[in-house]
Amino acid sequence: ASQDVQDVSADPLVQDSPTSFDAKSGNLIEVNSPMVGTFYSSPTPDAPLYVEIGAEVKPGDGLCIIEAMKLMNELESEVAGTIVEICVENAQPVEYGQVLFLVDPA
Fold first, then answer.
1. CATH architecture assignment, domain 27-105
2. In this structure, are residues 103 and 82 in contact, taking their beta carbons and an 8 Å threshold?
3. In the chain, count of helices (H) and strands (E)?
4. Reported confidence tier of residue 26, pLDDT bands at 50, 70, 90
5. Mean per-residue pLDDT for 72-84?
6. Residue 2: predicted pLDDT
7. Is the dihedral of CA 96, 98, 101, 104 positive or negative?
8. Exposed, middle or buried, 10 (CB in 10 Å: 0-12/13-18/19+)?
9. Given this model, what pLDDT does residue 106 score?
10. What are phi and psi of 48, to 5 degrees?
11. Which residues, including other chains, have CB under 8 Å from residue 98's CB and lie 6 or more apart?
Protein backbone atom coordinates (compact mmCIF):
# COMPACT_ATOMS: atom_id res chain seq x y z
CA ALA A 1 0.00 0.00 0.00
CA SER A 2 2.83 2.42 0.76
CA GLN A 3 4.19 1.93 -2.75
CA ASP A 4 0.83 2.96 -4.21
CA VAL A 5 0.81 6.09 -2.06
CA GLN A 6 4.36 6.95 -3.10
CA ASP A 7 3.56 6.42 -6.78
CA VAL A 8 0.42 8.55 -6.60
CA SER A 9 2.18 11.40 -4.79
CA ALA A 10 5.35 11.19 -6.90
CA ASP A 11 3.64 11.41 -10.30
CA PRO A 12 1.80 14.74 -9.74
CA LEU A 13 4.91 16.31 -8.20
CA VAL A 14 7.05 15.30 -11.14
CA GLN A 15 4.44 16.54 -13.61
CA ASP A 16 3.25 19.68 -11.78
CA SER A 17 6.63 21.29 -11.14
CA PRO A 18 7.81 21.51 -14.77
CA THR A 19 4.28 22.42 -15.88
CA SER A 20 4.16 25.37 -13.49
CA PHE A 21 7.49 26.60 -14.84
CA ASP A 22 6.43 26.15 -18.48
CA ALA A 23 3.03 27.72 -17.92
CA LYS A 24 4.68 30.82 -16.49
CA SER A 25 7.06 31.09 -19.49
CA GLY A 26 10.01 29.88 -17.42
CA ASN A 27 10.80 33.31 -15.98
CA LEU A 28 10.21 32.37 -12.35
CA ILE A 29 13.09 32.70 -9.90
CA GLU A 30 13.62 29.94 -7.36
CA VAL A 31 14.44 30.96 -3.80
CA ASN A 32 16.42 28.06 -2.37
CA SER A 33 17.23 27.10 1.20
CA PRO A 34 20.78 28.14 2.12
CA MET A 35 20.97 25.40 4.78
CA VAL A 36 19.44 22.25 6.23
CA GLY A 37 16.91 23.06 8.94
CA THR A 38 13.25 23.65 9.72
CA PHE A 39 11.17 26.12 7.67
CA TYR A 40 9.01 28.63 9.53
CA SER A 41 6.69 31.00 7.65
CA SER A 42 6.40 33.51 10.54
CA PRO A 43 8.75 34.81 13.25
CA THR A 44 6.58 33.33 16.06
CA PRO A 45 3.53 31.03 16.02
CA ASP A 46 1.20 33.98 16.75
CA ALA A 47 2.79 36.44 14.31
CA PRO A 48 1.56 37.11 10.77
CA LEU A 49 3.27 35.26 7.91
CA TYR A 50 6.35 36.86 6.40
CA VAL A 51 4.86 36.49 2.91
CA GLU A 52 1.82 34.98 1.24
CA ILE A 53 1.13 34.05 -2.38
CA GLY A 54 0.68 37.29 -4.31
CA ALA A 55 2.89 39.32 -1.95
CA GLU A 56 5.25 41.84 -3.52
CA VAL A 57 8.83 41.48 -2.25
CA LYS A 58 12.00 43.48 -2.74
CA PRO A 59 15.63 42.75 -1.86
CA GLY A 60 16.06 42.66 1.91
CA ASP A 61 12.45 41.69 2.70
CA GLY A 62 12.15 38.77 5.14
CA LEU A 63 10.70 35.62 3.56
CA CYS A 64 10.92 32.99 6.29
CA ILE A 65 13.06 31.57 9.06
CA ILE A 66 15.20 28.47 8.77
CA GLU A 67 15.98 27.01 12.19
CA ALA A 68 19.28 25.15 12.29
CA MET A 69 20.78 23.84 15.54
CA LYS A 70 18.42 26.02 17.63
CA LEU A 71 19.50 29.17 15.76
CA MET A 72 16.82 31.13 13.91
CA ASN A 73 18.14 32.34 10.53
CA GLU A 74 15.95 34.84 8.69
CA LEU A 75 16.04 34.35 4.93
CA GLU A 76 15.81 37.64 3.04
CA SER A 77 14.77 38.11 -0.56
CA GLU A 78 17.55 38.83 -3.02
CA VAL A 79 15.11 39.75 -5.82
CA ALA A 80 12.14 42.03 -6.44
CA GLY A 81 8.92 40.44 -7.61
CA THR A 82 5.73 38.64 -6.65
CA ILE A 83 5.54 35.41 -4.64
CA VAL A 84 3.70 32.94 -6.91
CA GLU A 85 4.26 29.75 -4.92
CA ILE A 86 5.31 28.76 -1.42
CA CYS A 87 6.78 25.31 -1.90
CA VAL A 88 7.14 24.24 1.75
CA GLU A 89 4.64 23.80 4.59
CA ASN A 90 5.26 25.60 7.88
CA ALA A 91 7.46 23.70 10.39
CA GLN A 92 8.66 21.23 7.73
CA PRO A 93 12.30 20.13 7.46
CA VAL A 94 14.15 21.48 4.42
CA GLU A 95 17.36 20.45 2.71
CA TYR A 96 20.20 22.62 1.43
CA GLY A 97 19.23 23.94 -2.01
CA GLN A 98 15.55 22.95 -1.71
CA VAL A 99 13.17 25.34 -3.47
CA LEU A 100 11.22 27.33 -0.87
CA PHE A 101 9.52 29.99 -3.01
CA LEU A 102 8.92 30.82 -6.66
CA VAL A 103 9.07 34.53 -7.46
CA ASP A 104 7.85 36.23 -10.64
CA PRO A 105 10.47 38.97 -11.09
CA ALA A 106 9.29 42.58 -11.28
1. Beta Barrel (2.40)
2. yes
3. 1, 8
4. confident
5. 97
6. 41
7. positive
8. exposed
9. 80
10. -65, 160
11. 32, 33, 87, 88
